[in-house]
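User: I'm putting together notes for a lab meeting next week and I want to include a structural view of one of the chains we've been expressing. I don't have a solved structure, so I'd like a prediction I can at least talk through. The sequence is below, exactly as it appears in our construct file.
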Amino acid sequence: MERLLNIHIEKLPEGVYLATSDELQGLVAQGRTVAETLEIARDVARKLLEAQSQDQELDYLQPIAEQFNYPLVVGE
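Assistant: Thanks for the context. Below is the predicted structure for the 76-residue chain, given as structure tokens.
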């Protein structure tokens, strides 16, 4: 089942992007672009959730609804 995980992305002074999450401890991902950072964050989140699912339920993450808003980044 897919679940919704909120992440925070910020551009660092070095010019790379950093993704973290208050909802999933240990999620840290860095990339050259937002798209690359999201891809890496998704992979890290999957691995962290797989490790956690063996020890505990993941009820703190909400299932994805039939409809939801998603901020689409468009531009350069």
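A couple of points you could mention at the meeting. The chain has a mean pLDDT of 86. The CA atoms of residues 43 and 57 lie 20 Å apart.

User: Perfect, that's what I needed.
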